Amino acid sequence: MINATNANTMKEKNRRLVLDLIRKNEYSRADLAKETSLTKAAVSIIVDDLIKTGVVSEFKSAETGIGRRPLCLKLNPDSMYAVGINITRSSAEVGIIDISGRIVCKNKVDVYPKKEALKQIVECIASMVKENAIDTERIYGIGVTAPGPVDSLNTTILNPTNFDEWHYENIGLRLKKALKTEVYLENVSGGLALCEKYFGIAKELNDFLLLIVSDGIGSGIMSSGKLLRNATELGHTSIAYDGIPCECGNVGCIEKYASIPAMLKGTKYADWNAVIEAEDAEIIEKEAEYLSCAIVNAINLFGFDSIILEGEINYRPQAIIDAIEKRLKNNTITRTDTRIFSGSAFSGVLCAAVTVFDNYFKFE
Asked: How many domains does the chain have?
């Protein structure tokens, strides 16, 4: 019995390893064997099963040259779907996404009152499935992103500021009961970090910090290719022990200094775009100073060599990137040069849905 369990576990691990490689690039069977160190026979068994179930198909590569073109493998987009629900403080966006990341459909519902919102979300999903003739057997799960903090393991929204009506809502339990489908929950930043890893600029990055700077400050941390769950509230770390009181109960939280509303308070600017258009060096430098305090702490703790900026701060970001990088060179204790990237600004429903695909492709 023990040997059988181990064999089944290894078989599933190898299957997901092969799938993850096919997701990232075009591979022939021989390439997969070389990349995974599996035998060609073992790869062929896995691939034949994936083709039989419709998840993968084979096609002739576009390579030119002497000899026959090799057969390569790719995912079938319509072989699997995920429902994405992105909950914000003003609305909830609901969508269905295929395994390639294409948004098949999406819609918006109100988030207040909560009981009615949950009912509308369930009805919206059922309606979209019917209208788009999607086989429910091909829906792998429901991914939800919400303002943090959240308890991903127990699929519960905890106590995000200015979102009292949704505090301690076990949305996973409620949706699973209504729709009979597995539910996965991440905070918005975590979902966006996964999205960059699967579909964006971070495909080849295993370790990075994603920082959202808009009305608040959120963060997603990828370490060794895995999202650090329930550990990404960088916006509520203090940069001043005797600083401004925060709604979270702490004082001096970076969100009270470096969020866009905090930065613009008392200025003539209506939004961050206007600051950049005016090339206001004083405000840009001050924002870089605040953000660098938090980023330096994160680098010194985790040793990141890559930072991805998202949110309003991502408008024509080179000025703020240059200002932050200058400070990082002087203030971090690591010897690694840290690069800052402009993020991809993915749709909220895709960021929610990718939590489902991450569960499908990863084997732990």
From this structure: 3
